[in-house]
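re the bet — no i am not wrong, look at it urself. input seq straight from the record:
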Amino acid sequence: MLQPRSTEFPIEISYNKVKTIINTKDIAYIESNSRRLEIHCSNGEVHYCSAQLADFFQLMPIWWERVHQSFAINLECIKEVSVSKIKMNNGDVVPISRRYVRQAAIRINNYNKVRTLQIPFTKTEKQL
């Protein structure tokens, strides 16, 4: 079984015979769409690769969290969190499913304690 890494590192992805190298710290979140992953970067770029989210997620550093069957996020790129959505630093909104909400809230709170970031948690959707 693959183990998550604790530091940032470059990953090489390939899609339609085009290879791209991306540093994990530059990725805001990953979305699974059919059998294709959409890798959304903090700068707005989107890269694609053919892989399953579960396998790809295992390669990511420890500051990553699965928040939905189709989404994994970089905890360093969170701007705001509500009960059902996360607003990322790049402005995108990622859903949190009921299945993952409790674990995601625990991981985000623990991450905030470790990193001493001020990410507001709201119970209303109005701010998103």
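see?? The chain has a mean pLDDT of 84. told u. also The longest strand covers residues 27-33. so pay up
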